[in-house]
Amino acid sequence: MRPDITFIKGQGQSKRVGAGQDYISGLILYTASLPSGFTTTANIKQMFSIVDAENAGIKSDYSDGTKAAGIYLITTAGTTGDVITLQVTEPRGVIITLGSYAKLSTDSTVSLVGDGLTAAINAGTKVHGYTALNTAGSVAITSRAGLGIFLNSGTPLSATLSAGATMAGTITQFTGGAASKQAVWHYHIAEYFRGNPNSSLYVGFFPVPSPYTFAEITAMQTFAAGTIRQVGIFKDSSAYAPGDLTAIDGVIKTMNDARHKPLSALYAADMKAVTDITTVADLTTLTANKASSIIGQDGAALGNYLFLITGKSITQLGIALGMLSLSAVSEDFGEPAKFNLSNGTENDIPGFANGQLLSDPALSDSALDAINDKRHIFGQQYVGYAGTFFNDNHTAITIASDYAYINDNRVIDKAIRGVYSALIPYLKSKLLKNADGTLADTTIAFLEAQAIQPLYQMARDQDLGEVSEGDVYIDPTQNVSLTSTLVVNILLNENGIARNISIPISFK
Length: 508
Fold this sequence. Notes:
Largest sheet: 7 strands, mixed
Oligomer: single chain
Strand order of the largest sheet: 2-10-1-11-12-14-17
Shape: elongated
């Protein structure tokens, strides 16, 4: 084994019962079709704004989707003055009138009626975005961009005839619509930079794996030279699986933390098929403290719209990653005073990634408490206080762990990075001894002074509580000549988080 410095994370020092580069983030996306600015050999790019994403071909214009197509077949030309009106019901019950046409006396065939109806639809294209093409009375209608799969099901296309009309026709409902993936990617990147405008985001596109091993985390971190502090993983190609959190945690601990590139991960996956969000997995049974589960979703704005047109969970991954990037390592990004997920529109109505709203009568306060206690992250609101805020910053591990929250992990990771940088110059250095074989006081004092400097800086940044000299201790009696290993003991004085406030109140 090569000479190295290793850290052994202790348990029990947090006193819990039962930004430098802190803002640098990564976003892992899976696809078989890359945006124009990416290639299979250049699949990761660093971005500093949503404009960088757009310049790299990640657009919000739905141009990579497929428009749905339907048909209205005119079977009887009808009587002069008969009026036909075609309408489409879009997401959230919005009804769009495509056009109306009144039969002329010269419309002697169904084809001529079709020409008139087609012209009426195309005259409104600039308003509603739909187009039509007539072939012998068969009016083929192409939807506007941005509707994805929504029109593929149900009976969104309807025809209304004027009273007493003898005109007749049949409807073939829309089919063939495919959702834009770029619009979803654009959404998450835009939400990230809304959460932290002054930030850096590495965006990586990878082939859809089978099975998911999440080796992409290491690829991203290696590309970023180990600077990524938090990574978002958007697994939209298959269903949410609790085992993914364990796999992510394993990759981080084995391939990144152990190689001096520690980071935390936010995981989001497709939960569309989950009919009852209260059945979500209990993550307290896991030991995946480097991974967190994002199951919240916008309930009425763009995030919800994308959910409807893709038929897949969108989640709050982008804004969660942005808020985490914005927060100090010692902060809970659910703090209402600092981290409002809503801009007055997006996430103003919180929901879950299966489409259920938190206001759903089926979701009682106790049900929401139970989901929280299963250690998932989602947006919520407080009575009498405007905004939407994350319920907490849980990790996928029991609450009794010293690493039960993202801030716990980010604090210790920052300390590890700092102490590593401080001591790496002295790896393989000579250690002077006293006559009795113990380490010399000067040697100990020097190394302890080097190791404690990053902790003092963290205390100044309020990422740690007060640091005392005894927080870094080197035992002078250890036999380094025998083991070739110098043990440096470090205790971190972590600040507390007021996750609950208890207020005894009574009359005098």
